[in-house]
């Protein structure tokens, strides 16, 4: 599964009407390969000005049925990491240059939740974990969130893809190219970028709760309250069994309580690697501190079943 092969994704069928898109970096049956333990890169905060010029970078439009368009860049792993045929390289690269279907599912569902009045972004702090292209976070930024923080395993992904995507979408809203200082002034939210492994990146994130959440009384109490992130977004982050625990523990450290929510888009099963929504849900259920509800199921007849789940503290 080469990261620079780009078969066209089929339109949605079933729950949602179809939307058009020029191309995405995932095939209908593409799955990340298995990984082994390796030393993760150091945790870093990157600035909006740290956009890196990457050769063969192109920008494309994704048009959604809701009447809005997002821009996304395309860049190959050969240009950024000097290898061309791997979506995962332990300790080096975690598939962030590929646009997975779950990112589009999540944007569509967030738009629907906003339209139906189930999600309000005014004054909200948002964290997108494993952001890659960052389309869900960019959408939340444009829709009025007060702060959007993007996290990816690789600093190179943030420099070569996420940051250029943020800039392109802000310039789109401003109807033209802008100088960097004007881009910063036109961003409607506090935008920050963080790289690092899920087991360590909480050490540099600005909004982390200092104590473990407990639900011994069956309901949230004032002493449990913490000013973490109001909304956490995750798309295609649960493919690897080995990383599920660190991902889940990170969400509990970062999610505002008692009213924070997590939106997770992923495949039901990632065949061959053991992960999927069912494995993550089992972990959440066994922990007993969060409720889970299915908000969308995407069945297009040509790929694995994809789902969008919503989590909140009990």
The SSE order reads EEEEHEEHEHEHHEEHEHEE
The secondary structure category is alpha/beta
Radius of gyration: 18 Å
| Residues in helices, as a percent range | 25-40%
Shape annotation: globular
CATH class: Alpha Beta
CATH superfamily: Vaccinia Virus protein VP39
What is the average of the pLDDT values?
Answer: 80
Strand coverage percent: 15-25%
Number of domains: 1
Strand order of the largest sheet: 2-9-8-7-10-11-13-12
Q: How many helical elements?
A: 7
CATH topology: Rossmann fold
Largest sheet: 8 strands, mixed
Poorly predicted regions are 1-36, 217-223
Number of strands: 13
CATH architecture label: 3-Layer(aba) Sandwich
> Termini, distance in Å?
40 Å
GO molecular function: protein-L-histidine N-tele-methyltransferase activity
Family: Belongs to the methyltransferase superfamily. METTL18 family.
InterPro entries: Methyltransf_16, SAM-dependent_MTases_sf
Subcellular location: Cytoplasm; Nucleus
């Amino acid at each position: 599964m080469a990261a620079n092969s780009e078969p066209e994704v089929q339109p949605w069928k079933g729950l949602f009407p179809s939307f058009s898109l020029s191309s995405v970096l995932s095939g209908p049956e593409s799955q990340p390969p298995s990984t082994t333990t390796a030393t993760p890169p150091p945790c870093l905060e990157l600035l909006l000005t740290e956009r890196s010029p990457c050769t063969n970078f192109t920008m494309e439009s994704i048009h959604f049925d809701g009447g809005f368009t997002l821009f996304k860049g395309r860049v190959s792993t050969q240009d950024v990491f000097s290898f061309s045929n791997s979506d995962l390289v332990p300790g080096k690269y975690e598939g962030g240059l590929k646009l997975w279907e779950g990112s589009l599912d999540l944007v569509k569902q967030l738009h629907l939740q906003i339209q139906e009045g189930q999600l309000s972004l005014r004054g909200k702090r948002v964290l997108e974990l494993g952001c890659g292209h960052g389309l869900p976070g960019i959408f939340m930024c444009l829709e009025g969130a007060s702060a959007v923080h993007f996290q990816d395993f690789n600093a190179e992904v943030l420099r070569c893809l996420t940051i250029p995507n943020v800039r392109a979408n802000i310039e789109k809203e401003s109807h033209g190219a802008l100088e960097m200082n004007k881009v910063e002034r036109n961003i409607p939210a506090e935008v920050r970028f963080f790289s690092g492994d899920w087991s360590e990146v909480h050490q540099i994130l600005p909004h982390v709760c200092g104590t473990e959440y407990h639900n011994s009384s069956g309901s949230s109490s004032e002493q449990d309250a913490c000013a973490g992130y109001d909304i956490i977004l995750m798309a295609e982050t649960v493919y690897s069994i080995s990383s599920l625990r660190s991902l889940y523990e990170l969400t509990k450290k970062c999610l505002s309580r008692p009213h924070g929510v997590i939106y997770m888009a992923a495949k039901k099963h990632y065949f061959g690697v053991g992960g999927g929504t069912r494995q993550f849900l089992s972990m959440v259920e066994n922990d007993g501190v969060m409720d889970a509800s299915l908000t969308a199921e995407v069945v297009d007849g040509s790929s694995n079943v994809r789902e969008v789940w919503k989590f909140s503290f009990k």
